[in-house]
Specification:
Bound molecules: flavin-adenine dinucleotide
Distance between the termini: 34 Å
Strand content: 15-25%
Radius of gyration: 20 Å
CATH class of the largest domain: Alpha Beta
Order of helices and strands: EEHEEEEEHEEEEEEHHEHEEHEEHE
CATH architecture of the largest domain: 2-Layer Sandwich
Number of domains: 3
Length: 351
Amino acid sequence: MLDVTRVDLSRHTTLRLGGPPGSLSTATHQDEIVQMVRAATEPILVLAGGSNIVVADEGIPGTVVLLRSMGVSVQRDRDGDVLVTVEAGQPWDDVVALAVAEGLAGIECLSGIPGSAGATPIQNVGAYGQEVAETIAAVRVFDRSANAARDMAPTECRFAYRTSLFRHNDRYVVLAVTFRLKPAALSPPLRYSELARALDVDPGARAPLAEVRTAVLSLRGRKGMVLDPVDPDTYSVGSFFTNPVLDGAGFAALRARAAEVTGVDPAAWPAEDGSVKVSAAWLIERAGFGKGYTGGHRGVAVSGKHTLALTNRGTGTTVALLALAREIRDGVRKVFDVDLHPEPVFVGCAL
Ligand SMILES: Cc1cc2nc3c(=O)[nH]c(=O)nc-3n(C[C@H](O)[C@H](O)[C@H](O)COP(=O)(O)OP(=O)(O)OC[C@H]3O[C@@H](n4cnc5c(N)ncnc54)[C@H](O)[C@@H]3O)c2cc1C
């Protein structure tokens, strides 16, 4: 279906920012996605929920293929696991809600994340101690170089913290994703202490799936991390920066600097390989950019609920948002000598 009206992409992004594309086509099933991608004028942008993307105010050339393919199929595997295959355009939270309702464990901590199922492999979506790489069994892609569709095994996808083979790579269009879930009343051991506390259990304990989902939605809601059409604190891309991962020496240097500047240790999570993931929200806040900070940039602000989310207050522009993001990135570097890296994808603009 060809949409001939030139609409601003602000209608299709959770930031509510972005000008018009050259053209926009809406695909509602796999064959249509392939057909539209093959026929598209370069450059092509595959867009789904628009919840992890920053688009230039003046718009972008080329074709936007808007994914609206829906459908979920469920199959029991020989070993008792359940394989849930989801079309790329299906909203992700529908999948989590369905899994929890059907007593299928493995994605309950990922409740309330905006966007589509097909985008979850792109940055290996994660939250509250789970990430999709742990449950993805296969990713069906249209490989534009080979001009053919095929299934990719998880090892081929090169999943890592907030990234994969698919990120910043327009060779592959995800058509569908298959998740391997376990029939279980309880979640896998809870890794995230804030979530365990909310459920009144010890970290490492298990909890009923529905209770985990409710607790995650409530925690996320308080941080403005669940979309709410009347709350500008949610007109964002979620976390604007990823949590920096430092090696042992880098973290020791940061601790020394943090002791000097703040008198306390940075919020951080050590990994088994000796690296340490540092809370970007902690760095931003302690560098002087608290909740609600605007820096005088018009119409944009740090969320009033979470320092890691940069928001459009309704009258912002991409130019203003990027200026605020640059100020924060440069401020954190100046105070703590740590580089923050952006999480969203930038189209027609750069940080
Ligand atoms: C309030 C809020 C909270 C959030 N919380 C989290 C969180 O807790 N954890 C987390 O990981 N993320 C979070 N995010 C970010 C975002 O929700 C996820 O990255 C989500 O997976 C993006 O899905 P989307 O459909 O909106 O992708 P889009 O924004 O439409 O696209 C993002 C990128 O993926 C590409 N893409 C999308 N679909 C496909 C496809 N089928 N094939 C190929 N490329 C594709 C696009 O071209 C673009 O480069 C949050 C965002 C918001 C607004």
